[in-house]
Design goal:
Elements: E1 4-8, H1 13-20, E2 32-39, H2 48-69, E3 73-80, H3 83-93, E4 98-104, H4 117-124, E5 129-136, E6 144-146, E7 155-158, H5 163-177, E8 182-190, H6 191-194, H7 202-223, E9 227-235, H8 237-247, E10 252-256, H9 262-268, H10 271-278, E11 282-286
Parallel strand pairs: 1-2, 1-4, 2-3, 4-5, 7-8, 7-10, 8-9, 10-11
Antiparallel strand pairs: 5-6, 5-11
Helix pairs in contact: 3-4, 5-7, 8-10
Length: about 290
């Protein structure tokens, strides 16, 4: 399902951990990997560029060797420009199935200030993006570790039953067909949409949405040998999702990158992007199909 993927690297210790974490994606059909480094404006000046290219080529070849030992067919590219433009354009040109990038977890208070290449790519992607969670090791000089995504990872699928969420569910169905065996389906009754004026209808909403979750559970069980749990909670979506990730030791969250309310996402930042920043798990974000309604 993820036959060809683009892996974004900056050749840092974090990206070394990212590359080391990818053998599990082979179980999901990954075969070909394009390893991409994006040159920034400081690296393209006269004299600097020639030196930079020699250093970068050496770093890329080391990471290429790691990926080839994992069984991938690998190409490397050094391209000039912003990652959000370069990586997404390349993904379209190459008809890639997946973009892979690494990022550390950020505190809720750091969201306004943080602006990293991984999140820029995520915001603009037209193909699914797997954000691999990196963690700096506490021991000084020990580098980074990364969560390894494979078919044994507990997976969380939060859904608001929107069109984009159903597109993401299609990806989850394929993952189960490839062997993913442990899935939690989650729907949050959004406190901001229900309280206080619709609280008298909460039980009605719960009955409807529990039935929806049960339908999704049956669909997954028809795809493969999978243990599926359903959870229905009331609260603030990104807060409740993070709670479930921590309670169930979730390693991978799969969700659509857009929800029901585009205006609210524009003003406040979408739930999916909050999750990508703040949960201690990898996140697979599935964008809407071109022209799809949100």
């Amino acid at each position: 399902m993820f036959r060809k993927m683009i892996v974004e690297t900056d050749l840092s210790a974090g990206s070394n951990a990212l590359v080391d974490s990818l053998p599990g994606l082979r179980a999901y059909g990954a075969e070909e990997c394009i390893l991409v480094y994006c040159l920034n404006s400081k690296e393209t000046g006269a004299g600097i560029k020639d030196y930079s290219m020699e250093v970068l080529e050496g770093g890329l070849q080391r990471q290429r060797g790691i990926l080839e030992r994992q069984g991938y067919v690998v190409r490397t590219k050094i391209l000039e420009g912003l990652a959000k433009d370069v990586v997404n354009r390349l993904a379209v040109q190459e008809e890639a199935d997946l973009i892979v990038a690494g990022a550390q977890e950020h505190s809720l208070t750091s969201e306004v200030l943080f602006s990293g290449a991984t999140y820029d790519v995520m915001y603009h992607a037209s193909v699914p993006v797997l954000m691999v969670r990196l963690e700096e090791r506490k021991e000084a000089g020990q580098g980074y570790s990364a969560i390894h995504c494979n078919t044994q990872c507990p997976v969380l699928f939060p859904t608001d039953f929107s069109e984009n969420a159903l597109e993401a569910f299609g990806i989850l169905e394929q993952m189960v067909a490839y062997g993913a065996g442990n899935v939690t389906l989650l729907h949050i009754q959004d406190q901001s949409r229900i309280s206080p004026y619709l609280m008298d209808r909460l039980q009605e909403f719960n009955r409807i949405d529990q039935a929806r979750l049960q339908e999704l559970k049956v669909r997954l069980e028809d795809k493969g040998n999978v243990q599926v749990r359903t959870r229905l909670v009331f609260g603030v979506p990104h807060v409740e999702i993070k709670k479930v990730v921590e309670e169930e030791d979730i390693q991978l969250v799969v969700m659509g990158s857009r929800g029901r309310t585009h205006l609210q996402e524009f003003l406040m930042g979408s739930v999916s992007h909050r999750i990508a920043r703040h949960v201690p798990a990898c996140v697979l974000l599935v964008p809407p199909k071109p022209g799809a309604k949100r």
